[in-house]
Amino acid sequence: MIPPRLAPLLDQFDFARERLTARIAGPVVDSGDGTDTRVGPMTDEEYFWEPVPGCWSVRRRADGPGARATVLVGQGDWGRDSAAYPHPWPPPFTTLAWRLSHLAELLTLRADHTAGSHTLTRDDYRVSGDAAGAVAAFDSGADAWRKALRSVDDAALDTVGYCTYPHGSDAEEPFIDIVWWVNQEVLHHGAEIAMLRDLYRERG
Q1: How far is the C-alpha of 168 from the C-alpha of 186, rounded, in Å?
Q2: Is residue 46 within 8 Å of residue 195, measured between CB atoms?
């Protein structure tokens, strides 16, 4: 049984996840008025497109971090631009690759720290160096997070620190607030990714 308070948040997550997946993978996406709009799959060129100078992105580890970044987080041959707190101000503009990698990592790690080993860190997360891999990683992370949500009961929703994710406010927040926060991350980064796809299409 899904706790009644969790049901609308789970429905919202499913809607946002489905819409973003369609937007980045195609072949069609709901345009917002109930009609289908054809959308091609994201290309590697689009994945790495930097619309302004000095973007934070996903980069080959051998190339080192980008402007104002001090480290490439993640495991493997690729990493995502980052820096220790306090982050640079104003915040660097981030590419589609950066935003999608951030979302996939957030979902994967929070799933682990809710219903998994409670051990994964950003250094354990393998960053994708191509668009198809990034789409698959987002899908896998979303599946893991949804499975974790389905494992909780009503008491868990009120438990402060139920999720032990180490990179947010999870230790100070009841779990239901974390569920809400993850939804808004998918919603707002999903909207940013959709806008970047539109800008890329019209860049010429």
Answers
A1: 15
A2: no
Closest CA to 27 of 41, 17, 16: 41
| DSSP helix/strand/coil, 160 | strand
Q: What's the one-letter identity of residue 200?
A: Y
Q: Where are the domains of the chain?
A: 7-56+95-201
Q: For each of the chain's 204 residues, which pLDDT tens digit applies?
A: 899 999 999 999 999 999 999 999 988 887 777 788 888 899 999 999 999 999 999 999 999 999 999 999 999 999 999 998 888 999 999 999 999 999 999 999 999 999 999 999 999 999 999 999 999 999 999 999 999 999 999 999 999 999 999 988 999 999 999 999 999 999 999 999 999 999 999 997
Q: Which residue has the tokens 């589609």?
A: 96
Question: Which CATH code, of 2.60.40.10, 3.40.50.300, 3.40.800.20, 1.20.120.450, is assigned to 7-56+95-201?
Answer: 1.20.120.450
